[in-house]
């Protein structure tokens, strides 16, 4: 457990009573605090047509975060290739790698990160590009590769920058791709088969000799289990708002979650709690041990923490770090 690296994912949510600029400022402040704590990396997700999130122009947010931090690696969790030409992605991340050497990550996803109408507005051929994901990953590998591997079209200044690529997903398709390419696999689900496929079929590459597994989980750590469950009611309200099609701003925690939700919605949130790390340091440590016992060893835990109060959010990340050190 002590060897598991810690990182964080941020969707840049807008808290109730705040605006877009506040959300971006909160994003930077959290990155700075996690940088001071020694977290490994800080990723920013890509979502479009979401009024409760400010994470549509991911590359701009990554650069802004890099400019205001010192050591922590910053990247995309992920860049959704159906929405972007690989050449443009390589140019953007190659430029950031030039400005901030060895601190830029490129997580890659095959989903559009939005509804299909918005996806069509983002990229005309996005329906086909979903199925072109493996070929586009190869293109990116070439763009970031050495000079002798380049073709006529080159992604300057990405040539020979070797920006590390990570395959995102919870499906067996993503697991097969990450294994075949010898790339790190970022797992955001609970499909044991996908992790087994990745580990068993992994082929060593120029960037990795053995599998590297990052697991992304909702994580809320507090002084007591009861306090953590109270803070988690913010996450529960977000989950339910998505199922209702409303995408509401991040709301403060509540003691009356059951009264705000239908029985079906309340059952849904309880199930999501079971798939998360929520509780005191001791409880979360046990939950993570159970996860590792079921799914196998992991190299890194990427925590996403929907907590309304920024101080309590940072305290959660501190407690998570302490829990693993113990």
Automatic annotation (TrEMBL):
It comes from the Bacteria. Its EC number is 1.14.13.107. The keyword Oxidoreductase applies. GO terms for molecular function: limonene 1,2-monooxygenase [NAD(P)H) activity. GO terms for cellular component: cytosol. Coiled coil: none annotated. Transmembrane segments: none annotated. The keyword Manganese does not apply. Keywords: Oxidoreductase. Residues 19-293 form the Luciferase-like domain. It is an enzyme of class 1 (oxidoreductase). Gene3D superfamilies: Luciferase-like domain (3.20.20.30). PANTHER family: LUCIFERASE-LIKE MONOOXYGENASE. NCBIfam families: oxido_grp_1. To bacterial alkanal monooxygenase alpha and beta chains. This is Luciferase.
